[in-house]
Structure formats: structure tokens, C-alpha cells
Automatic annotation (TrEMBL):
<comment type="similarity">
    <text>Belongs to the NADH dehydrogenase family.</text>
</comment>
<dbReference type="Pfam" id="PF07992">
    <property type="entry name" value="Pyr_redox_2"/>
</dbReference>
<dbReference type="GO" id="GO:0050136">
    <property type="term" value="F:NADH dehydrogenase (quinone) (non-electrogenic) activity"/>
</dbReference>
<dbReference type="InterPro" id="IPR023753">
    <property type="entry name" value="FAD/NAD-binding_dom"/>
</dbReference>
<keyword id="KW-0560">Oxidoreductase</keyword>
<keyword id="KW-0520">NAD</keyword>
<keyword id="KW-0274">FAD</keyword>
<keyword id="KW-0285">Flavoprotein</keyword>
<dbReference type="InterPro" id="IPR045024">
    <property type="entry name" value="NDH-2"/>
</dbReference>
<dbReference type="InterPro" id="IPR036188">
    <property type="entry name" value="FAD/NAD-bd_sf"/>
</dbReference>
<feature type="domain" description="FAD/NAD(P)-binding">
    <location>
        <begin position="21"/>
        <end position="347"/>
    </location>
</feature>
<protein>
    <recommendedName>
        <fullName>NADH:ubiquinone reductase (non-electrogenic)</fullName>
        <ecNumber>1.6.5.9</ecNumber>
    </recommendedName>
</protein>
């Protein structure tokens, strides 16, 4: 952990010393839904988030490939919670929990720190991309978890075609026109399909020296089929659709090395490793708990699984610490899925627990209600799975669109996104594909959490 500057002498207190102080870590679906629900009640809520904004992560790949802008999939938490006068939003990265003093230490972007007190703590910090102990992969293979990730991928994707345009035919040009995706889950499938659409439709007539539609997209996964969380029939349909788009599926392999020039994959069943020359590699293969969540588990003596998910009681509280709740992807119970619906329902459940505590009523058990799963394959083609209902093709695409639009935060986001998609249906343009390579001369105040991410607090 780097030096974090001078800590404030005083702890930030809630507006009233008499009302219950609820501190929520993370402004994702779980934290936001919890804060909004408690915004109607007689408690003081503080929402601490490292970005001060809510991001609709399921649509990050649409931003990365130029269909949607940042504004379509994100919204300021201050704007979102402005009407809730008992909710305070703070910018900071939670780095240390002191359960005895009931405080959380947070780091500002300038690496100074401050502390926030609580009576009830809700940890909804989410997960980060996992490289399974090979963190050096991140330099060459960005994940898909943040807005920065999406903009980085957009830059790499469209820059690859630009560089290829300047090269003569041969292996070097071919490597720039080869895109490798590690991970065959929903995010990997969606980004692979979108890259092929960019190459074969959006950019098809814009270059002179290259034929973008000849770009290769390689999808690697250790399983025997893509989208293993879906029914086998839908998974098979997804594989056929991806293949028809031109995505090359390589199943039953692990990506064992990533570098500047490409990837190395090794069959799970054994055999010789194989190298693929690809100058653009994207990583969607796994997730793990953020450093603060691991520190929480350690100081509270809570059990965790290999990914850092925290074991909880039936009401989502940490065993032995009824004042601390875990929400969303970090919950290590009942194989709950790492999806937005689980986080939303968890956030609402914790808010209900807080209200019941105030009313002197017993808490209820958390019960997750599966509202279905959806995955976008290509324009006009998606999968939708809701209980026994299995839908694919255009009907699945409509269902996918309805689900995502319904969950978007803020009416303006929904309306503008609907019109963007309607316009995109009839033409190949992607109006939000602009990228910048950055400046080398202008002095910048560079704020980053990258050093803080290296080591738990």
C-alpha cells in the first residue's frame, strides 16, 4: 500500500447523532437500491463510492464498441440521490474497516484519507477482474468492469484497424486484425459478437488498404460450450450464431500467457501449447473480491471462497456481526449469481432489515427471485431465459432490450438509449466510437486507484 497522506483528525459524522447511521460502500446496483429505499426513512445514509457514479455494467461492451456513449450507461450518484435529503454521497475508496470503533477509512483520489462512522455497514463493493494470479496479463488484456475499461477497449479496438491500414500485407498486419477474447460467458460472447459486427458492418467500406471484414475474432474458454449458465439448447444456438458471424470458438483451453504479440493457450486435456498472434486481447474470464472486501472478511473473521466471496447469514449479515451486511456479487451463499438482479434485490432486502430493526421486528431471510438471464449476440439476435421459457433470435433481442432498458438508472437514460438503438437498427453507424490516444505534453493532475488496488488495506 502506498503512503496515503495525512488522515483527517475528525471522523465524518452523520447529520444527526441520534438517528441510525447507515454507511454503504459501493454505488452499484446493490448500494444504489439500498440507498434509494432508505432515503424514504428516518435514518442518515452515507454512500461511499470510488467513482461517485452509477454504471450499468451489463452494457459496458456497447460503450466499448461505439454503440452507446458513457452518458447512456452511467449517471452521477449525486444527481440520482439529490431528492433524498438524508443521503450523503462521498467520493473515496474504502481501504480499511475498524469494527471496534465502527469506522471505515477511505482514500481520496489525491491519496489523503478520511474516516466515516456507522451504526450499520453495507458492503456492496462488487468484484474486480481476476487474472488468476497472473496480474501482468492486465497490461495487455484489459477487463470489462469500469468506464475506463470500456474506453480503453474502444481505443484498442479502433486503433488496431487504423494501424493495420498503414501496414503492408503480411503477418504484422494480420496480427493487428486479430482479436482474442478470453472467456465464454455473457460478456465474452457479447464483446466477440460486437467486434465481428464492427468489422463486417460498421467499418466495411471505410478503409482502402485493408478489408476490415477479414478481421479474425478468437474466443477462448475452458468449458465445453459458451454461456454455460444458459440451457444447452440456447448455448448451442449462441455458438452457431457466433460461428455464422465469423467468431472462431476454441473450447476446452486455458489462456496460459498474454503478451504484447498475442496469447498462448493450453488444452485442458493436456497437449502442446499453441500461440496466436493477436495485438488486441480482451479478458472476461473471471472475477475476484476487491481488496477492501478481503480486508473486511479478515478483520471480521468471516469465511470466504476462492474468489473472496464472504459467507453470510440468511439475512445477508456477517456471522457474529449483525450490523454488517454483504450485498451483490460478494455474497458467498447458495451459489447466488453475480448479476444485477441479485444485487438489486439484496440492496432492497438490507434496507428492509434496517427498517425492521428500527421497528423492533425480526429480520427476514433473503430469498433471491430469478428474473431470468439474457445475452446479446448480434444486432437483432439475443438469448432470453426466464424459468422454463427459452427465447432466441429477434424475440430474444426484444426481451433483452426490454430488460436492460427497464433497469437503466434515470428516465433520460432510458429514453436516449431507446432512440439510439432504434437508429442503430437501420444503419451500420456507431456514433460513439471516437477515441483519444492522450497527450504527451500537457501537464495533468492524474488521479488513479491503480496503486491502491495492488494490495488490500
Amino acid at each position: 500500500m502506498p503512503a496515503v497522506g495525512t488522515e483527517d483528525a475528525a471522523t465524518l459524522e452523520a447529520v444527526s447523532d441520534e438517528r441510525t447511521r447507515v454507511l454503504i460502500i459501493g454505488g452499484g446496483f446493490g448500494g444504489l437500491f439500498c440507498a434509494r429505499r432508505l432515503g424514504r426513512h428516518d435514518v442518515d445514509v452515507t454512500l461511499l463510492d470510488r467513482g461517485a457514479g452509477h454504471i450499468f455494467q451489463p452494457l459496458l461492451y456497447q460503450c466499448a464498441t461505439g454503440t452507446l456513449s458513457i452518458g447512456h450507461i452511467s449517471r452521477s450518484l449525486r444527481e440520482e440521490l439529490a431528492r433524498h435529503r438524508n443521503v450523503t454521497t462521498l467520493l473515496g475508496e474504502a481501504i480499511r474497516l475498524d469494527p471496534g470503533a465502527r469506522t471505515v477509512t477511505a482514500m481520496r483520489p489525491d491519496e489523503t484519507t478520511f474516516t466515516v462512522g456507522y451504526d450499520v455497514l453495507v458492503v456492496a463493493a462488487g468484484m474486480k477482474q481476476s487474472y488468476f494470479g497472473k496480474e501482468h496479463f492486465a497490461e495487455w488484456a484489459p477487463g470489462m468492469k469500469t468506464l475506463d475499461d470500456a474506453l480503453c477497449i474502444r481505443q484498442r479496438l479502433f486503433t488496431a484497424f487504423e494501424i493495420a491500414e498503414t501496414l503492408p500485407p503480411g503477418p504484422e498486419r494480420d496480427s493487428w486484425l486479430t482479436f482474442a477474447v478470453a472467456g465464454g460467458g455473457p460478456t465474452g460472447v457479447e464483446i466477440a459478437g460486437q467486434i465481428r459486427e464492427v468489422a463486417s458492418r460498421t467499418l466495411a467500406n471505410e478503409f482502402h488498404s485493408i478489408a476490415p471484414e477479414d478481421a479474425r475474432v478468437l474466443l477462448f474458454d475452458g468449458g465445453d460450450r459458451v454461456l454455460k449458465s444458459f440451457a444447452p439448447g440456447l448455448s448451442d444456438k449462441a455458438a452457431r450464431t457466433l460461428t455464422s458471424l465469423g467468431v472462431e470458438l476454441h473450447m476446452g483451453v486455458h489462456v496460459t500467457d498474454v503478451g504484447r504479440d498475442g496469447v498462448t493457450v493450453t488444452p485442458k486435456s493436456g497437449g502442446a501449447a499453441e500461440q496466436y498472434a493477436a495485438r488486441t486481447v480482451l479478458w472476461t474470464a473471471g472475477v475476484e473480491a476487491v481488496p477492501f472486501a478481503r480486508q473486511v472478511a479478515e478483520v471480521l473473521g468471516a469465511d470466504t471462497d476462492r474468489a473472496g466471496r464472504i459467507s453470510v447469514e440468511d439475512d445477508l449479515s456477517v456471522p457474529g456481526h449483525p450490523e454488517v451486511f454483504i450485498v451483490g456479487d460478494l455474497v458467498g451463499r447458495d451459489d447466488l449469481p453475480g448479476v444485477a438482479e441479485n444485487a438489486m434485490q439484496g440492496g432492497l432486502h438490507v434496507a428492509a432489515c434496517v427498517r425492521r430493526d428500527l421497528d423492533g421486528k425480526p429480520r427476514r431471510r433473503y430469498r433471491y427471485r430469478d428474473l431470468g438471464s439474457a445475452a446479446y449476440i448480434s444486432r437483432g439476435n439475443a438469448l432470453l431465459q426466464v424459468g422454463p421459457v427459452r427465447v432466441s433470435g429477434f424475440a430474444g433481442w426484444l426481451g433483452w432490450g426490454f430488460i436492460h432498458i427497464a433497469f437503466l438508472t434515470g428516465l433520460s437514460n432510458r429514453v436516449s438509449t431507446v432512440f439510439t438503438w432504434m437508429a442503430a437498427i437501420g444503419r451500420a453507424d456507431r456514433h460513439h466510437r471516437a477515441f483519444m490516444l492522450g497527450g504527451a505534453t500537457a501537464a495533468e493532475q492524474h488521479y488513479t486507484w491503480s496503486e491502491c488496488d495492488e494490495t488490500p488495506g
